[in-house]
Model the fold of this input.
Amino acid sequence: MTTAARPDVGDLLRGWRQRRRLSQLDLANDAGVSARHLSFLETGRSRPSREMVLRLAEQLDVPLRERNDLLLAAGFAPAYGRRGLDSPDLAAVTRALERVLAAHEPFPALVVDRSWELVTANAGVAPLLDGAAAHLLEPPVNVLRLSLHPEGLAPRIANLAQWRAHVLHRLGREARLTGDPGLAALHRELAALPGGTDRSTPDGIAVPLRLRTGDGVLSFLSTVTTFGTAVDLTAAELSVEAFLPADDHTARVLGAR
Done:
């Protein structure tokens, strides 16, 4: 029986630096260390302290999950824990999410994790899912797959090519910034679905989601809220996506519901 070798912390640091398109000199200046010392860390000639790993990870804006990977590769214990949302320690987080979702009603809002899997949603989301295939609504529900799949919302999205271009660009950027192979695989899967892409500059201030319904086309602008000071992996990887009316017709229809 063989076990996979643990990646070297120097290789991981170099990979993150290159992903952020920084030179050794740029990162060294930002972190307050010499370029020579950083070079030694990346080549394995020197081993970083725990404090140095965390300092470089902060400068490189490495996600918390991958900061734990850096620490493990350097021979240290992880710094960031992961609790379930049902943990008493995350009760305040759960209450905060419930308040945010309730505050957005009657407008749709949902909570997703880093993989874009649905965690919870408010009552405003359910009417928008009419007609979606049952297999796309079985947990875990991936909201991006649900939106772009031909058996999901895609046939009802009036500006599908434009919305697809927005979703794929955003997902591709997240995959690159986090280095998450799961996000990269999801991007490949969704890019292979039909629907085309329209990368032309949209009218207005943002790309809307224009959804055909029995009340006509409803138009939404999306906003994203995250926990900016989270030090727990679960909380750090949650985000609230709210869909706000982009026109008066949408506001009236949802208000009447």
Residues 88-256 form a domain with the Beta-Lactamase fold (CATH 3.30.450.180). The mean pLDDT is 93. The chain has two domains: 9-73, 88-256.
